[in-house]
Amino acid sequence: MLDLGFVRANLPLVEDKLRARGADPAVVLGDFAVIDRERRDTITQVETLKAQRNKLTEEIAKLRRAGEDAGAATEQTRVLKAEVESLEGVAAKADERLKEMMQTLPNLPQESVQVGRSEQDNVEVKVWGEKPSFEFPARPHWEIGEALGILDFERAAKISGSRFVVHFGQGARLERALANFMLDVHTGQHGYTEVMPPNMVNSKSLFGTGQLPKFADDLFHCDDKGSYTPGVLQDGDHWLIPTAEVPVTNLFRDETLEEAQLPVSFCAYTPCYRSEAGSYGKDVRGMIRQHQFQKVELVKFVKPEDSDAEHEKLTRDAERILELLGLPYRRMLLCTGDMGFSSAKTYDLEVWLPGQGLYREISSC
User: Fold this and answer.
1) Nearest 5°: phi and psi at 333?
2) How would you label 251-283 residue by residue, b for 16+ Cβ within 10 Å and e otherwise?
3) pTM of the prediction?
């Protein structure tokens, strides 16, 4: 979440960056400047009235010590107290409204990110590997997997519904082997520490990484502690994680890391759960847009001035996996209109799929 003071001091910049993302500042920020000014004016009034009340309290004490009537001064303090409480209520409402605005304000794109409206405006940064050619029509992975008996979508639908898959035999072994391979490379060659986090998190954790409150419909909520109340961040409720990024990033929530500890690099292999709300009818075949899938996640905690360099390094670490596997890929720099809510800059790594004759995102950095 962006700092309120930063938004206040750089409002024209924030508005320009929102327009670059394809958002309307009037919708996202509303009457931010008016509410912020009224809030600060109200707080100033409250402090002034409190100072007056404190002064009267001292005068009342003097009058009583002198045996004089303090009734008028006492009545005046009651009036001031009521005014203070009323104004504090106004300030609290303004605070809440500003907090809501900050929660729905996306991150600001970096200058190196191209302004654009959709994936059509993304920039191809690099291409690696040669696309394979075959003397026969390439088949999509779901046909190959079902023919080999290593993927089963029908039985998955029977036991869980659509957008699930069961891996059998070599399919299950391949999934496990790929995870071990990635973890071994990242820990042994790239300097990451492996972590195995919980697969369920509370509301505060999802708020900490930007999934709540905006993207509640994209998540699976567990009915262990009653239904989720928007705006109420609980410790006792649970959600299935959409990515290991959520629990791993929240490992240090409400903590201060010493500069000497940085950078901290973690990798984690977990299942991921996504409702894919709004994506029905898109990519319904195969292991794409699944409600559950497994993923190795990379997360870095770094000094702000090292952020760009570490982002490039993390992206290279992900690319190295694809190169070791011999998978042709391309790196795409997402434009402002195609980036995620919490992103300032995003690279997508897209692998060439012969069976579909196109590049598909396999990693988002």
Assistant:
1) -90, 115
2) eeeeeeeeeeeebebbbbbbebbbbeeeeeeee
3) 0.89
The H or E element that residue 200 is part of is: strand 200-201
- In a domain, residue 156? The reply is no
User: Which residue range forms the structural domain that includes residue 62?
Assistant: 4-103
Residue 266, both tokens? 């973690």
Return the amino acid letter for 265: S
Nearest to 213 by CA among 99, 104, 94, 107: 104
Q: How many CB atoms lie within 10 A of CB 56?
A: 18
Residue 357 lies in a domain: no
263: preceding bond cis by omega (within 30 degrees): yes
Task: Per residue of the chain (365 residues), give pLDDT as tens.
Answer: 899 999 999 999 999 999 999 999 999 999 999 999 999 999 999 999 999 999 999 999 999 999 999 899 899 999 999 999 999 999 999 999 999 999 989 999 999 999 999 999 999 999 999 999 999 999 999 999 999 999 999 999 999 999 999 999 999 999 999 999 999 999 999 999 999 999 999 999 999 999 998 899 999 999 865 666 776 776 678 999 999 999 999 999 999 999 999 999 999 999 999 998 766 666 668 898 899 999 999 999 999 999 999 999 999 999 999 999 999 999 999 999 999 999 999 999 999 999 999 999 999 99
β pairing state of 123-128 and 329-333:
antiparallel
Is 176 a domain residue?
no
CB 8 within 8 A of CB 36: yes
Count of beta carbons in the 10 Å neighbourhood of residue 210: 20
Does any domain span residue 343?
Answer: no
In CATH, what number is assigned to the domain containing residue 13? Answer: 1.10.287.40
The residues, any chain, with a CB within 8 Å of residue 118's CB and separated by 6 or more, are 335, 337, 338
Tokens 């002064």 sit at which residue? Answer: 55
Structural domain count, the chain? 1
